[in-house]
Amino acid sequence: MVEFTYVMLKPDGVKLGLYEEVERIFAENGLTIVKHKLDNLNGNKELIREHYAHLLDKSFYPDLENFMMSGDIMPMIVMGENAVAKVRALIGPTNVLKARNEAPDSLRARFGNPDFGPANVIHASDSKENAVVEIKRFFGITITQPEMVEEGSKYEDSGYSKIMKARRKIRESWKSR
Ligand code: IDP
Ligand code: MG
Q1: Atom 6 (ligand 1) nearest CA
Q2: Whole-angstrom distance, CA of residue 131 vs CA of residue 124
Q3: Domain of 124?
Q4: Which residues of the chain have pLDDT under 70?
Q5: Whose CA is nearest to atom 12 of ligand 1?
Q6: Fewer CB within 10 Å: N-end or C-end of the chain?
Q7: pLDDT averaged over the chain?
Q8: What's the structural domain count of the chain?
């Protein structure tokens, strides 16, 4: 199923100029960056607290917060088959040393800093539901995931839903050839 996910170059990823490399790797894996922008969280501690609410009580949280304000970020909306899981696999494990050991080709293994936990160059949503929340958080847009379009829902007859249905039919007809 085609889905959306939220991806973000962190300040280290922007400083390393990783956008083109990320775009290339995503394209090779059938993923499209449908929207991206350069932004800055400078002083926006509230938004960082919201985004990393699950880590507020960790001893490294102040480092993470300062790190996220240390330079520009690049929020992206990415679309493709199984985009959430695919992007998570392409970025690799949270911990850069672990990434180097277990997924040496991943973005975090290749570009992250093993000596500073927060500096793992890139963020990606860990579920379709969180992707919707995070896209809203950083772009102010509410995106409907295709599988959330239920029969009879107000989105069912939207142009978007029709495109998705048409794409599914084309794929199915190819499979049965
Ligand atoms: P994720 O980014 O792979 O989803 P989370 O557990 O959600 O991992 O953590 C969010 C971010 O917080 C990580 O990407 C990393 O920047 C930072 N972080 C997580 N665990 C640690 C740690 O143990 N030390 C320092 N920073 C950490
Ligand atoms: Mg996370």
Answers
A1: 94
A2: 8
A3: 2-175
A4: 147-160, 177
A5: 118
A6: C
A7: 92
A8: 1
Token pair listed for 22: 């990320």
**Which protein residues are within 6 Å of ligand 1, measured from CB?**
52, 55, 60, 64, 94, 117-118, 120, 123, 126
pTM: 0.86
How far is C-alpha 117 from the geometric centre of its chain's CA atoms?
Answer: 19
| Residue 174, token pair as written in the block | 């190819």
One-letter amino acid of 141: I
Ligand that comes closest to the CA of residue 52: 1
CATH of the domain at 25: 3.30.70.141
Give the whole-angstrom CA distance, residue 50 versus residue 54: 9
Q: Look at residue 2 and give its three-state secondary structure.
A: strand
Q: Which residue has the tokens 């973000």?
A: 8
The residue assigned the tokens 């696999």 is: 89
Indicate the residue type of 146. P
